[in-house]
């Protein structure tokens, strides 16, 4: 069985969805590690309900980005992690880290990449008055939200939508396509 790590910084609803589905056998892998760079992340509370090791790796406690990433890499090795899933992880991983884990790190992004990369994708798509936005799952490369796309799904922006209702629809799609994309990767069925 492949072993997964999930990296979080905040709310952790995607993380919990993945933990729940792995436990239910809908994702045929073991989530062996949760890493948060934020000691206050609500994700850590959510993870308590699951039998998974949680680790806080606080950037502020490390002298450099390299030392911070070396600590994370050490734990990925210790837990024999096959794939890392970014789920609302707010740090950019260095080119060296990405190169050492090429095609082993996935990310979920709340827009139809390559449109609207960056931290405020959902709001940016809303303010640009897009008629259709969506969700992308991709491998992480050296750029910001630029890696090879595994799966995308559209979400229509309707007249009656508000930013809040759009956010709800985006999340609902995230909870479907992140597991689907993970399973494609696990089954070796990704076509780039
Ligand atoms: C999601 O919208 C995801 O696409 C983006 O960050 C958000 C994380 O939400 N990368 P949550 O922490 O999983 O609730």
Can you tell me about this structure?
The longest helix has 24 residues. Helices cover 35% and strands 23% of the residues. The protein is globular, with a radius of gyration of 16 Å. It has 6 helices and 7 strands. The protein has 2 domains: 101 residues, Rossmann fold; 85 residues, Formyl transferase, N-terminal domain (Rossmann fold, 3-Layer(aba) Sandwich). The model has no long low-confidence stretch (mean pLDDT 98). With 192 residues, the protein is an alpha/beta fold. It has a 7-stranded mixed β-sheet. It starts with a strand and ends in a 6-residue tail after the last helix. Helix 4 links the parallel strand 4 and strand 5. The structure holds 5-O-phosphono-beta-D-ribofuranosylamine (GRF). The site of 5-O-phosphono-beta-D-ribofuranosylamine has 12 residues, from helix 1 and strand 5.
Summarize the structure.
The protein is of the alpha/beta class and 192 residues long. It contains 6 helices and 7 strands. It has 2 domains: 101 residues, Formyl transferase, N-terminal domain (Rossmann fold), CATH 3.40.50; 85 residues, 3-Layer(aba) Sandwich (Rossmann fold).
